[in-house]
Amino acid sequence: xxxxGFACSKNCxxxxxxxxxxxxxxxxxxxxxxxxxxxxxxxxxxxxxIAVGIFLFxxxxxxxxxxxxxxxxxxxxxxxxxxxxxxxxxxVSCACLALNKEQQSQLLEVGWNNTNSARSDIExxxxxxxxxxxxxxxxxxxxxxxxxxxxxxxxxLEEYSGMVLRFVGxxxxxxxxxxxxxxxxxxxxxxxxxxxxxxxxxx
Length: 203
Description:
The protein is mainly alpha-helical. It is 73% helix and 0% strand. It is built from six helices and no strands. The two termini are 19 Å apart.
């Protein structure tokens, strides 16, 4: 069977959804590992990561079942959901890659002011206190707080923010192109006839 045939399209679609399943389980596992070892205490951050992992797992499950059973309705909804996810993910990835230093700094400050639990995690893990200025009167979870010689967290965060945004944007772009591949494979696969089925039946 050539690569454009029914069996090849089915196998490629199954392999792609198995990849999505592994990524979703990895995302859930990393979130659980982070909170289990005390690296992340913010349930909001962990909740978002786990919710994204579960959503990706459900999408992959729908695609996998639709591919194995050649189910027209499941494949249609899978294709539509994948298209919506692609639009959102591609937009976010491009935004991550397009942010300049000033915009990154503003975004970090907004995030710092709106997340108390994540702020504690950052101070503890990066050994810093405060955002722009270290204030000895404010409570801090960092180990350097006892000596009152802490550096503010903004310079450290800004040093790594560009690298993190480029990494996130690059990974997002890579998976957005796999989603385009998934949409194309699903479209082809839906319009192909199963050679084992009744040749006069429309599938």
